[in-house]
Records
---
Amino acid sequence: MAEVVLKDLVKTYAGNDSRATDEVSLTVADGEFMVLLGPSGCGKTTLLRMVAGLELPDSGQIVIGDRDVTYLEPRRRNLSMVFQSYAVFPNKSVADNIGFGLQVRKLPADEIRRKVEWAADLLQLTPYLDRYPAKLSGGQRQRVAVARAIVMDADVLLMDEPLSNLDALLRLSFRAELKKLVGELGTTTLYVTHDQVEALSLGDRVAVMRDGAIVQCDAPTSVYDDPADTFVGGFLGSPPMNFLTGTVQRAESGRLTVDFGGQSVPLPQALSSYEGKSLTLGVRPEAVAVEGTADGEATLRGSLQVLEPLGSAVLLTTEVCGQPVKVQAPATFRAETATELRLRLPSAQCRWYDPDTGLLLEAR
Ligand SMILES: Nc1ncnc2c1ncn2[C@@H]1O[C@H](COP(=O)(O)OP(=O)(O)O)[C@@H](O)[C@H]1O
Ligand SMILES: [Mg+2]
């Protein structure tokens, strides 16, 4: 096991104008499960491949444990990797697939057997050890790939979208198993995904990437509850955070409000320097309430445009002063289209963003 430290990693592919990774720095603690999350093309795979040694950075440094491995050959880095395409050998049995790396290392046969049986047991592959991959389901093949990675006793486990080829139900069950397994192994893990739910459910911390840079790196609840900018708030959540832009005004009473065009909500005094300027309110659909009373809470009138029953909840699309606001209401909620709903916004769940930079503002 080991800590992984990435320092200012820059990588530009030949022929590309923009950097695939742009001065990325990240410290993954010993035993930590770190998820790299971001849309397609943001540089996740590039970052992982540099840690693996499959790509070399233009500049920057990679330290694993106490070794600078930036330019070290992949096989000397003592890490193992699971790819999206399971890449199992079709002409080898499950046992030989799992033990492949150990055979390459020329470990004694009985030791290989012991480790293969241990990994097969953990991944529920014991009944299939003599089978060939063609006779396995996609989920079982992916288990073989994970088993092959964990027998290596690597310092670091790298996984690039390992669940994305599985169907939705399998992905869900394997996700929970993977979390348990990696938790028990305690191996430092760097896990790449574009799936926000996967990221939140697996990660000790989630590093959200955009255009080759890490925008925010924090515990899952923190990136979800306190998105550092409108990109993170808009990427996480299904549907994502609502954003409403208005103008900060001072009422006759002296109180600050943000006016969205005929409707307004109170603004924390800490943001008084924005008087006369624009501000963006960020609030998650499940934080907005449509029922009950509104003691001391900001309210807005939203005209109901669409009501979508989702089984466990109802998703409402409303319009407030011409801007869309999504609301997640209780499963039993019903109302006619064009009904004017009273939307309650608990101040503790409202976030304020600078509309120019998109950055979260400290409102306390
Ligand atoms: N081998 C390559 N050659 C040229 N450009 C590449 C190569 N691999 C990735 N890129 C580019 O680098 C950027 C980051 O890609 P990648 O790391 O694969 O992103 P992600 O894994 O987040 O989808 C993208 O713009 C992609 O087109
Ligand atoms: Mg990728």
Note: The CA atoms of residues 216 and 223 lie 7 Å apart.
---
Amino acid sequence: MSKVRPGKSHSVFVCKGCGNEQSKWSGQCPACGEWNSLTEAPTAKPSTEKSPRRLTDFSSNVMRLAEVRAESAVRRLTGLGEFDRILGGGVWPGSMVLLGGAPGIGKSTLMLQAADRLAAPDHPVLYVSGEESPSQIKGRADRLGVKNDRLLLASETDLLEVLRLVEEHQPKTLVLDSIQTAHKPDLPGMPGSVGQIRECAAELLHLAKGKGITVFVLGHVTKDGELAGPRVLEHIVDTVLYFETEDRNVYRILRAVKNRFGPTNEIGVFEMTSRGLMEVTNPSELFLGDRGGATPPGAAVAAVMEGTRPILVEVQALVARTAFGMPRRQVSGVDYNRAMILIAVLDKRCGVPLDSQDVYVNAAGGLRVEEPAADLAVAAAMAGAAADKSLPPLTLWVGEVGLSGELRSVGQLSERLAEAAKLGFKTAVTPKSGLKGLQAPPGLKVISVATLAEALKTAGLAED
Ligand SMILES: Nc1ncnc2c1ncn2[C@@H]1O[C@H](COP(=O)(O)OP(=O)(O)O)[C@@H](O)[C@H]1O
Ligand SMILES: [Mg+2]
């Protein structure tokens, strides 16, 4: 007997295993490989019908630009400085923010801390969890020292019910933990499926824009960094924040990858403790490694811009004779291709032969150093490692290295130098070009050079 599947245009087939949706039935789910797992589910409305208006639709009449009043909303500060900074100076009312990160990284913790600080008599906050019961959330709240009677908790996965709760309690901020557990019962697909996530997010966006409620949506990211389910969420929301960490590290980096109401590529650094996430207000100290005592050979400090903020990072290199034929090159936290170019430039232009040496490069503390401005520090670390010689202590190395070994100017040099001076650095080696009008911060001696070879000579590392 052959299985005859009705091919009605308004049906979809949903995999019971993974929630994959497709328009045709097949014996095996192409997404997860499960057999006989696809079942037919009607869509909410046949596709021929006019698409339904949302429960919370928003639209406007056409107006002349001059007639439109600019939004002069007042941002609300959470008081978690790093979080506020990343959002662009506090929470923009009526914005929708996605907070993504791997399970266990601290999304619920951060949001509960932020919700606590936002909640006030004139600003009730509703925290809806589809993952934990109110008593579980209370357990966490007790641990974090959160007690705020303007913070309302609910456990709910049905989005329509969430919208009803919003209607009933009129919060100014809604937190939904997480988008993967929310679902609209009138739609096919399991919670977490592409269709469900998209629809729920669109509904929440309309809530945010229509009623001016700030909506925070939490979302899980898989191991390889993709938001489980669709990336489509990133397009819908105003702001996308990702929480990242290195393995077994207590430090968490919160990064704004999209922001309609603030700068992007801004990072905030937190430390996970039993009392919740604590701000690390001076991340340079963290990424500099342990600077007690002498500088080890093969370590150089770079200044990279993360958003609007300069951060000092220690780059470490190790150079060892190749045992068998092909030299190994292993880099972590530094751009691989740039490191390969720097090896070639060191070899050709500075007399630092690395062709029969294994080279390992690492950026301390788990920050990714991909800016060309870090070239000089990476090259200096490698040259120091090759000569087994320590670079001068408390020295910053800033500059982009060109293929002919010239040093090129970098943007925001004064911010980088100011950060180094603040941390007690004594010397900065910088490109000669682009220094016009630059005032060295007090206490910092700036040595400006034209080429990588000259820069290395200041540390006694290159031939004349
Ligand atoms: N008692 C505790 N002491 C210290 N850290 C804790 C404690 N309980 C939980 N954590 C930390 O909180 C993390 C879970 O945070 P959570 O906000 O639930 O993550 P997410 O919501 O991203 O899955 C754990 O991985 C752990 O690092
Ligand atoms: Mg959670």
Note: The first strand starts at residue 11 and ends at 15.
